[in-house]
Fold these 2 entries.
Entry 1:
Amino acid sequence: MEEDFLVEMDYAGLTARLKRLSDAFVYSTKEFYKSVDLDIEPNWHMIFLILQKNEQMTVMEIAEALQLSHPAIVKLINKMKKRGYIKSEKDPEDFRKYQLSLSEKALEKLPEIETYWEAGNEAVAQIMNHNREILKQLEILEQNIAEADFKQRTEQILKTNKP
Amino acid sequence: MEEDFLVEMDYAGLTARLKRLSDAFVYSTKEFYKSVDLDIEPNWHMIFLILQKNEQMTVMEIAEALQLSHPAIVKLINKMKKRGYIKSEKDPEDFRKYQLSLSEKALEKLPEIETYWEAGNEAVAQIMNHNREILKQLEILEQNIAEADFKQRTEQILKTNKP
DNA sequence: ACTATTTAAGTAACCCGTTACGCAAATGTG
DNA sequence: CACATTTGCGTAACGGGTTACTTAAATAGT
């Protein structure tokens, strides 16, 4: 077999493996979209879905729902706007906000895109061996980090070891 | 509880969750290093370890061992050089290559850094509930993707569904 | 020996996400 | 009502990684 040093690193390799795996999906998805001539980015998927569910949302609402920082959402939304997938209108009750929603173009293209997403989900299922275990494991990490993150835990451990 | 839309997305949220989790570790580690006044970046860890194991390596060798692209390694190495952690000398047998190794400064600082890494590993173990299951699951995904990546599988599924 | 091909590395152009900062609008408080 | 604080969101500066392209050196092949 081939040697994979990140695997060999064991616990210390976890972070980089998560990133590497995520990238493997992202770049592969990107190429897939290109091959079927779809003018969208992989991670717009989550924006499409959340705006399908909620119709109208603000930047901050999306950021909270996805648990990402607001600048991340701003960037995504700006690109999607530039390509005409997002409609945004000033909130009449709070002029700081813009109510975001899917554009006509987005709604129009969605049916086609959805057939690709369905195939993609099946591909992910295959890669997961049709087993939900990885999702459960991710949830455990997410919850534990929410309780106390890496930095807090590491500092606590050092404090306990020292004296 | 709070709602996490990426979790709700199920299979379609996997990629973004992997990235989000990786980032949670990276940025928390970054802050930890800052708090203990360590002048290194989180993902230099893998470079330090692999050069501790192998003494001398080229950019391509590191890229292969970590299964990352060579430009990724070039960038890491350049930053580490700038901070004085990497020694590089032209390979006398092949002038395209540079043999990379840890500098005196790196070797000097390593003992201290290692105490932090040990605490960090324990923190990761806590976050994993002292259970190796997540590592096994990642290995499954890595292997399945190595056999056929997301794009190939998705195209295959579409081909099978169509006719 | 002398081209043709492969390989090592570096660079450019992108996409992703984060923290830090700034500004304007909304809300709270004396 | 006026001043202070909070909230929404846009931008800048970083750090990470990828693919595509280029250059130079090593290796193949006739």
Note: Chain A touches chain B through 73 residues (CB under 8 Å).
Entry 2:
Amino acid sequence: MSTADGQLRPSHRRTAVLEALKGCPRIVSAQELHMRMVAEGTRIGLSTVYRALRDAEETGRVDVVQAGTGEKRYRWRRGGEHRHYLVCRVCAASRPVGAEAVEAWVASVVSESGFAAVEHTVELAGVCARCQRAAD
Amino acid sequence: MSTADGQLRPSHRRTAVLEALKGCPRIVSAQELHMRMVAEGTRIGLSTVYRALRDAEETGRVDVVQAGTGEKRYRWRRGGEHRHYLVCRVCAASRPVGAEAVEAWVASVVSESGFAAVEHTVELAGVCARCQRAAD
DNA sequence: AGGTGGACTGATAATCATGTTCAATAACGA
DNA sequence: TCGTTATTGAACATGATTATCAGTCCACCT
């Protein structure tokens, strides 16, 4: 394989993936993130991006949103806590929403259900104010 | 493919798919439903099952849960209202949960966000009491 | 009843996101 | 420097879903 510019970074392609994710203003899919990185000049394979995101998901460093089409979209988790997001269907801009009420509701449902190890997913998708204007 | 109002014309096969779904005690994937129908002696193609479920989803006659693997699981919507479910990760048993608190929370978040046409997804997955016992 | 046109069906192929394989290789320690 | 080992990434595999399209069925008209 040709090492064209010799700009081989230290062993942290994975770190590069997470850094790129941090720099994303909107939620992105693995493929979008890969394209973005390549466009910026980072030499990285799609597999590595998938691997890094899966690992980050398992270790709780990113939040995941399942799009309706069965693709996953990621967002860097800024605070320590897991968050829920309101995502724009048009431009994919995302903003975290306060979810204390939902967390409390989930806790009460779980306690009276007899279920154990309950995980919850809350997803909100709509059209943001800017895209509403742009639709005219 | 579709008539003026976007609804598929009723047909023997399509009705059979929804009837089969009604008879399912747990949430099922399209493929599971197809296998189930074939096992019962119904002659039907996988494509038709997918089509019927997609149409039912679009017209709001079924509830959909996205499994972690990117597969969709369906449940016949018994009341008129859309529901949320607590699903067992082991046996796929599902029970509807009262979600008034969540609906109210969603409404308030939406009203102060400036977003329009917001749709929400709430999914709860855990291990039901029976499967907890069976795990011993 | 018989014909006709459009809708439905289903086998197959295509697509799409993601996972796995494995030879090449970069990082690290002796 | 040399060898060991984990990481990488291109190609391939997989699994769910969707599109294609020729054949079939059905409703309606005469």
Note: Chain B touches chain A at residues 66, 70-72, 86, 88-89, 95, 97-99, 101-102, 104-106, 109-110, 113-129, 132 (CB under 8 Å).
